[in-house]
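Supplementary Note 3. Input sequence used for the single-chain structure prediction.
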Amino acid sequence: MKRFLPIVMLLMTGAVVAPVKADLIHRLSTSTSLSVDGALTVGTRLGSTYAVSGSNVEVASGGAFGGLTAPTSVTAASAMTEGSYDITTDGSAFSFSESFTYGDAVNPMGTGVDVSSGIVADMPAYGVVQTNSGGVAGTLAGTINSAGAIALTAGGAGTNATGQFVSEITIK
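The predicted structure, written as discrete structure tokens, is reproduced below.
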């Protein structure tokens, strides 16, 4: 029986194993992305504000509440008008609070920000300002050769370099 076993096994493999068909797909892809950030300035102009509050306080005889006056020109901010106040009941406790914020003048169009070579040289004189200098390409570069070797060279501030090599094998 031991002598016939190898022959039986050979006959079985020929009868059991059918030819196999397989599709093989191999894809290679590469990409390089280089970017330089632009300069950015955001300015928020603050308006003039006036507030007054208190207790046991009144407008003085012949006086007036404080407030804002109209600006002298269309680009100027409103100024403050002083109020005139007295204590309502002499000898009694009182509280008084007055505040004023002088607003920003309006910059004429085309002024307030200068950008040269991606660098913000000056910015608007507003109450709230956010400034980001632009990127400088400098030596920014990127290559990928046919073997998939990636070479990226850093640039100046505000630059980004990304290299990618993808090898995909699909068997169907």
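The chain has two domains: 20-37+135-171, 41-132. The chain has a mean pLDDT of 82.
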